[in-house]
Amino acid sequence: MENANRSVESYIQIYSQLRDRYRWKVTDQSVLMMVASLYISNNRSFDIDRFTELADYIKSESGLFSPLRSESRFTFAAMLDTKFDDPKEKFPAFIAAYQALVSAGFSKNTFTYISAMLLVTANTENLKPLSERARVVYKKMREEHLFLTGHSDYPLAVMLALNDRQTDEVIFHIEDLYSKLSQNGFRKGNELQSMSHILSLNEKNHADDMVARSTEIYDRMGKEGIKVKTKFYPQVALLTFLENEYDNLLEIKEVWEHLNAEKLFKWKKDINFMMAVNFVISDKIDQSSLLQTNLSTTIETLIQAQQAASIAAISGAAVAASSNGGE
Fold first, then answer.
1. Nearest alpha-carbon partner for 224 in 252, 255, 186, 244
2. Span 261-282, mean pLDDT?
3. What pLDDT, on the 0 to 100 scale, is given for residue 322?
4. Spatial distance between the Cα atoms of 103 and 63, rounded to a whole number of angstroms
5. Listed residue (45, 41, 42) closest to 14, CA to CA
6. 3-class SS at 203?
7. Are 77 and 58 in contact (CB under 8 A)?
8. Which of 68, 173, 199, 303 suits 57 as a labelling partner, its CA being 20 to 30 A distant?
C-alpha cells in the first residue's frame, strides 16, 4: 500500500505540472490525467520541459490534418517518452507502423496510431504480416459482433495479432468468454467485448475459471461498496490476472478514496477508479517478473484506448465511427 500511495503522490505532482502548463490548451483535463498515469504505470521519471519539447516535435513532424497535431500529441509524446530512451529516434518507426496498418486496411484515426505504438513497443520488424494478421483478427471480431466492433477495437486486435495462437482459436476463445460472462450476469455490449478480449490474453487458465474469477471479483467489489458500472468491466478483467483479490480491492478502494478527496480530481470519480486499479496493479507487476510483459502491456493498452475514446468523443469522431460501425 505504501508504494501505491507514493504512486498517487507522484501522479498528483505530474498532473499538477501538466495542468499548470496546458490547462488552456486541452479541452478535457482527463487527457492530462491519462498522460500523467502513463508515467506512473511505466515507472518513468517526468520532466515537463522534455515532454513539451517532444510534444512540439510530434506536432511539427505531422501533417496539417493529422490527429497528432491535436491533443493526441500529448498522449503519444507520453507513450514515446515512457517507452524509449530516445523517443525522437523512434518517431519514424512509429509512423512506419501506422502506415503499415493503414495499408492493411485500417482507417486513418487515433486508434490506428495507438495500435502502431503497440507494434513499435513490441519492437517487431514484421510490420506488413503483423498488420495484415491484425486486420484479419479485427474482421473476424466484426463478423461475431458487427454492431459492437468499431475503431476503438483496433488496439486489442493488434494485441491479439501479436499472440502466436491461431486466429480462429483466439476468436473462439473470446466468444466463449463473452457468452459465459453474459450467462453469469455481465451485461452484453462494448464493455463486455473489451472484457472478453482482455481475459483472452490470459492463456494459462480455462474460460470457465476466468469467468468464475471475474464473477467473484465483481461480487466482492459490491460487498466493498464499489458499484461496478459496465465501463469498469475491463478493470475487473485486469484484476483476474492477480492473486489475493480481496487485499487488492481494499488497496484499490483506499487509493480511489484518496483521489476522490483531492480537489483536482473530485469531479472525476470514474476515471479515479480506473487510475486506482492501474496504480495498484502496476505496483503488483513490479513485484512479479512473471506477469511483467503481458499484464503491463494490457494495462497500458487499456489506458491508451480509454484516452483515445475520450479524445474521439470530444472531437465528434465517436459519432461518425458509431454511425458506420467502423471498417
1. 252
2. 89
3. 39
4. 18
5. 45
6. coil
7. yes
8. 303
Distance CA 111, CA 202 (A): 23
Cβ-contact 316, 40 below 8 angstroms: no
Nearest Cα neighbor of 127 from 95, 150, 83, 88 is 95
Q: How high is the pLDDT of residue 315?
A: 47
- CB-based contacts of 59, cutoff 8 Å, min separation 6: 68, 69, 73
pLDDT of residue 1: 62
| Cell numbers for 88 | 525522437
Using a cut of 0.90, tell me whether the model's pTM lies above it: no
Three cell numbers written together for 21 = 502548463
Helix (H/G/I), strand (E/B), else coil: 1: coil
| CA–CA separation, 180 and 201 (whole Å) | 16
DSSP assignments along 124-154, one per residue: -S-HHHHHHHHHHHHHHHHHH-TTT--GGGH
Residue 325 has a pLDDT of: 46
d(CA 20, CA 208): 48
Q: Which of 241, 245, 243 is nearest to 295 (CA)?
A: 241
Tell me what pLDDT residue 124 has: 79
Q: What are the cell numbers at 170?
A: 483466439
CB 113 within 8 A of CB 78: no
pLDDT, averaged across the chain: 85
DSSP character string of 250-317: HHHHHHHHHHHHSTTTTT-HHHHHHHHHHHHHHHHHHT-TTTHHHHHHHHHHHHHHHHHHHHHHHHTH
Phi and psi angles of residue 56, each rounded to the nearest 5 degrees, phi first = -65, -35
Q: Average pLDDT, stretch 97-109? A: 96
321/147 Cα distance (integer angstroms): 11
Mean pLDDT of 16-44: 89
Listing DSSP states for 2-64 in one string gives HHHHHHHHHHHHHHHHHHHHHTTT-S-THHHHHHHHHHHHTT----HHHHHHHHHHHHHTS-T
Cα angle 301-305-310, degrees, rounded to a multiple of 5 = 150
